[in-house]
Amino acid sequence: MAQINFSSRVGVWWTSDAWPINDVIARAREIEQLGYASLFYGEAGGKETFTQAAALLGGTERLVVGTGIANIHARSAPASESGARTLGALHPGRFVLGLGVSHAPLVERGYAGSYSKPLSTMREYLRAMDAVPAEIEPGEQRPARLLAALGPKMIELSGSAGDGAHPYLVTPEQTARTRELLGPGKWVVSEQAVALTADRETGLRRAHQHLHMYSQLPNYQKSWLRQGFDESDLVVGGSDKLAEHMVAIGDAEAVAAHVKRHLDAGADHVLVQVLGDDPSTDPLPGLRELAPALGLS
Q: CDD domains from the xrefs (predicted)?
């Protein structure tokens, strides 16, 4: 298994595109001090992912930084591979390259690209990455490569051509299925959105807001149907049932128990994504509250 120097089994998922990078780095330092082992973030038309990774790695000491995910339609395979190798050489064991095929509406609208046959597209992309000459950062171990894998075939590819999977918006039961498909020796790094509140209605409001965009993307709709939900759950923003399964709602102890379910199901590492009343909400107050319940120092 490719090396990842996680100092604990829990990290953070935070898309910080709306924040100035110096403010993001300052928060990353506190995330590290709180005992969270990693910081993953998305790429959907905001900050460029490799530039942001370099800034976060350089601004922290131990924190693992992961792309969750780097959109393969945003750059060529050689650019992704050479960039990852350079970050890995500078910060051994601290950079994780998460890759994904993204979604047809985003690719066709945001990148003016063609979205077809995502599995074969990803397979060929990984082959092109492997073909980058060895003299690019010679002697350095390639950083861990995870795939945003929702369906069984992409999960299998994440094991055969990568180092594991980065499941997003999944139940602990889906984490278990991912582990079963991958077997031992591959990374499973699952994301878990959380709404820290004792008020169910507040939690549901945050959850529905979070799911609003995702619920309109076919890849997630298909994933949720495979996970046992039905068409009635696929309304814009998701049904209450879907919202309560995708987002852990409750106090810090209840959220920590949900995170533990992913770990017990076979995840090596779980990324908590703290939801607020606004997508640009500062996650630190929630992360401070959660840290003791998660057993972090």
A: Tetrahydromethanopterin_reductase (cd01097)
In a domain, 215, yes or no: yes
The C-alpha atoms of residue 152 and residue 158 are separated, in whole angstroms, by: 10
Residue (of 27, 29, 6) closest to 15 by Cα position: 27
CATH for 229? 3.20.20.30
Q: What is the pTM of this model?
A: 0.95
Please compute, for residue 125, the number of CA atoms within 13 A of its CA located in the half-sphere on the CB side: 25
Task: List pLDDT tens digits, range 80-117.
Answer: 999 999 999 999 999 999 999 865 555 545 554 666 78
- d(C-alpha 164, C-alpha 188), whole Å: 6
How far apart (Å, rounded) are the C-alpha atoms in residues 294 and 139?
A: 37
- Parallel/antiparallel/unpaired status of strands 64-67 and 70-71: unpaired
In 143-251, which ranges are continuous DSSP H helix?
A: 152-160, 172-182, 200-214, 218-226, 240-246
82 assigned to some structural domain: yes
> 250 pairs with which residues across the strands?
196
pLDDT digits (tens, 9 = 90+) for 238-261: 999 999 999 999 999 999 999 999
What is the bridge-based pairing of β-strands 38-41 and 70-71? unpaired
Q: How many domains does the chain have?
A: 1
